[in-house]
Amino acid sequence: RVVAAAGAEGVGDVGVVFLSGGVGKRMGAGMPKQYIKLLGREIALHALEAFLDCDVKEIVIVCAEEWRSVFEGYLAKRGTVKPVIKYTSGGKERQDSVKNGLDKLTTEFAAVHDCARPLVTKAEIDLVIADARRHGAALLAVRTKATIKRASDGKGDEAMVGDTLDRNQMWEAQTPQVVRCSLLRQGFDHAAKHGLAVTDDVSLV
User: Fold this and answer.
1) Number of separate helices (H) and strands (E) present in the chain
2) Residue 201: how many other CB atoms lie within 10 Å
3) Distance (Å, rounded) from C-alpha 161 to C-alpha 153?
4) Which pLDDT band holds residue 4 (cuts at 50, 70, 90)?
5) Cβ–Cβ under 8 Å, residues 181 and 109
6) Is the Cβ–Cβ distance between 132 and 178 less than 8 Å?
7) Does position 109 have pLDDT exceeding 60, yes or no?
8) At residue 110, does pLDDT exceed 90?
9) Are 139 and 174 in contact (CB under 8 A)?
């Protein structure tokens, strides 16, 4: 995986918006997928551990009240951690949940992470943060391996192949996505004003 910068250098501190409010409907597991256990530990906790090892000031865990005990119990057993841990509830859509978490941050940068991505490493997080400090925003991304077709309208609900996109120019956006908080707040204001819906955070800036 590589880090893709997205468009002033400073020493600013970093807070994490840790998204754990999804309900996991597509998984069909009867519970949110981030709370399924992997190697004896909830998926969300694997992701959280990576951020606890990083030099971040605070972590806002965005989750439903009924699942907060998963984090509280784990952190109590783990002992003292460096970041300040905060909680807030999720929103109707992903961007609403991010906004709720952002409202709790006091830091210069926000690192937004989907907790259902447990394989992120400290090294990857550190790289994204470093690039965000240089460019104002950055994200983790991987090159697309699949061939991507752009569809055009056919008859009725039938989709027709419009064209084939150049795979060499395609990247799959992942998280964390790290953005200067002032830029992200401006992006949310713009999205609210114009009724925009986005599925990742750098799209707002």
Assistant:
1) 5, 11
2) 28
3) 9
4) very low
5) yes
6) yes
7) yes
8) yes
9) yes
Single pTM value for the model:
0.86
Q: Token digits for 83?
A: 């970041």
Question: What's the token pair of residue 65?
Answer: 């009240």
Which residues does 42 contact at the CB level (< 8 Å), separation at least 6? 34, 35, 36, 70, 74
The vertex-145 CA angle with 123 and 140, nearest 5°, equals: 25
**Which of 123, 132, 37, 50 has its CA nearest to residue 59?**
50
Identify which of 33, 54, 48, 52 has the alpha carbon closest to the alpha carbon of residue 130.
Answer: 54
The length of the chain is: 205
Q: Residues 6 or more apart from 199 whose CB is under 8 A from it?
A: 94
Cβ–Cβ under 8 Å, residues 108 and 13 = yes
In percent, the amount of the chain with pLDDT more than 90 equals 69
